[in-house]
Design brief:
Elements lengths: L12 H10 L6 H12 L3 E4 L6 H12 L8 E4 L3 H14 L7 E4 L5 H9 L4 E4 L1 H9 L10 E4 L2 H6 L3 H9 L6 E6 L4 H10 L5 E4 L10 E7 L5 H11 L5 E4 L3 H13 L4 E4 L5 H12 L5 E4 L1 H4 L9 E4 L6 H8 L9 E7 L4 H10 L4 E3 L5 H21 L7 H6 L5 H16 L17 E6 L9 H10 L8 E6 L4 E6 L3 H8 L3 E2 L2 E2 L2 E3 L4
Parallel strand pairs: 1-6, 1-7, 2-4, 2-5, 3-4, 5-6, 8-13, 8-14, 9-11, 9-12, 10-11, 12-13
Antiparallel strand pairs: 15-17, 15-20, 16-17, 18-19
């Protein structure tokens, strides 16, 4: 496992500041190995699986090397508009402290707006091959001064038949450019592109797949709405018998936020991440080993120093960037011949990534229903009665016999029930709603794409109202709603998908007509 810090990589201060604010502590392997080579000016092929932080690898490098000019210096191609938008959103985060400007172009959106955007002067263009070619034909997009060419998800590009478009675009870019390809696999088509369009000394960086999870660890997951994640975490903690638990988050910020919220709800929890001093980390780890802290919230970097054989459970509050980190997390439990359990709390869009980890690590993940209020009640009463039995066994209750005798016989049951209620309330930290939460089962929903977003004055409540009133569907059939600047995604029950497409397509939301499609699986 890499122990390199981002600050040890040759990134600009502006990019490092953005990465720090994003909460990342340490680079993934593809980031660690590719960033120095890209910044040296090498042509590279980065071979690593989806979800390993490739966008930050090339994005952080480009944004560190470039200066604002007002003309296009870099072109980034991606196979789908959805991926292009994701890259663009990531660039906005990574480049927030730079003076560089970038835009995203793709089909299915107003080309006039994209033309106006490019004419204002952009340093970086992110887009799909078809729309980039269209803008080139219209003499709007000139690639004559491009210094950097990036092809992301290159194998997907080839699978989707973009090879001729890619070659046409590459032939218009100056030969002295730097070419960067990222791909999960290495098919012959990519080798052909490399031999034809990349410098002879190009570097092939391959992050190998390896490791399997322990057979001693049972692995489960819950598919939840994003705004339910914290409550689901509390339901897991309250509904199960857990001795010693590590809860993993992706960033330092998440660790601090979740720790603060759990402490606010009276859970026995402490945090551990890279911003803490060595002495503070050692003190926290010692308390965890001694059983004085039941729940430890940690980042992947901090968890490398955790060597505790008695960890009974691992919970992934956020999935890691790559499968190797997942394996490392799960390896914190099920040690020294003990049995362990691991739970992942994911949104519907993360199911595909989790299934990919399942295949790579030769594991089996079981999808579970979110713990109900009955599950929580039964577990807490079980714990309460166990503690009562312990007091009785140690004969610590004898001095209260006289008090019990004074309670009228007809009130004894009421008093006992009231005492149980009072004790039960002290054992449950979260103020649960009266309803049981329903998971978004990964096999029962469709993800719909709407071409309207925040810029069109669409928010979650308007989207919900639109689907219920115009779509004529029940609120219970609507799952996670994600509103972006120019578009939105909504998870809906498969049974109502066609109804929404029939009733809502070309109808107005916030005063503007909306187009709806079933989103690409990616």
């Amino acid at each position: 496992m890499s122990k390199v810090n981002f600050k040890e990589l040759p990134l600009s201060e502006a990019v490092l500041k953005a990465i720090d604010e994003m909460g990342f502590e340490s680079p993934s392997k593809i980031q660690e190995k590719s960033i120095p080579e890209i910044i040296k000016g090498r042509d590279i092929i980065g071979q690593a699986q989806t979800g390993t932080g490739k966008t930050l690898a090339f994005g952080g490098s480009l944004l560190s090397m470039m200066e604002h000019t007002g003309y296009v210096q870099a072109i980034i191609l991606s196979p789908t508009r959805e991926l292009a938008k994701q890259i663009y959103d990531e660039f906005k985060k990574i480049g927030r402290f730079t003076d560089l400007s970038f835009t995203c172009v793709y089909g299915g959106s107003e080309i006039e707006r994209q033309i106006r955007d490019i004419k204002r002067g952009k340093d970086i263009v992110i887009g799909t091959p078809g729309r980039v070619m269209d803008l080139m034909r219209r003499k709007v997009l000139s690639l004559s001064q491009v210094k950097y060419f990036v092809l992301d998800e290159a194998d997907e590009m080839l699978n989707m038949g973009f090879v001729e478009d890619i070659e046409t675009i590459m032939e218009t870019i100056p030969e002295e450019r730097q070419t960067i390809l990222f791909s999960a696999t290495m098919p012959d088509g990519i080798k052909k592109i490399a031999s034809s369009y990349m410098k002879n000394d190009y570097l092939h960086i391959r992050i190998k797949e390896k490791q399997q999870t322990s057979n001693n660890v049972k692995q489960y997951f819950y598919v939840v709405k994003h705004n339910q994640k914290f409550e689901v975490l509390c339901r897991i903690l309250d509904s199960m018998e857990m001795q010693s638990v590590i809860i993993f988050c992706k960033t330092k910020r998440s660790v601090d936020e979740i720790t603060m919220e759990l402490q606010k709800h009276a859970y026995n929890v402490e945090a551990m991440h890279g911003d803490m001093t060595q002495n503070a980390r050692m003190h926290t780890l010692r308390r965890f080993k001694e059983g004085k802290t039941q729940f430890l919230i940690a980042t992947d970097v901090a968890a490398r120093g955790i060597d505790v054989e008695t960890v009974s459970h691992v919970i992934n509050y956020e999935l890691p960037q790559e499968d190797e980190l997942y394996v490392h997390r799960i390896g914190r439990t099920g040690r020294a011949g003990n049995k362990g359990e691991a739970y992942s709390i994911i949104t519907s869009r993360e199911v595909r990534f989790l299934r990919k980890i399942e295949r790579k690590t030769n594991s089996h993940f079981e999808e579970l229903e979110i713990p109900s209020l009955d599950d929580i009640f039964n577990q807490k009463i079980k714990e309460l009665l166990f503690d009562v039995q312990k007091v009785m066994d140690e004969n610590k209750h004898a001095e209260y016999f006289d008090v019990v005798k004074e309670i009228p016989k007809h009130m004894k049951d009421d008093v006992l029930a009231a005492l149980l209620k009072m004790n039960f309330d002290t054992r449950v930290g979260y103020d649960y709603s009266s309803e049981d939460l329903k998971a978004e089962r990964s096999d029962s929903y469709d993800r719909l794409f709407f071409n309207r977003g925040k810029a069109d004055k669409v928010n979650k409540s308007k989207m919900l109202e639109f689907l219920i009133e115009v779509g004529k569907i029940d609120k219970k059939a609507i799952g996670e709603i994600t509103i972006k600047r120019k578009f939105s995604f909504v998870n809906v029950d498969k049974n109502v998908t066609q109804t929404i497409l029939n009733h809502c397509t070309n109808k107005k939301i916030a005063g503007r007509k909306v187009n709806i499609e079933i989103a690409d699986a990616k």
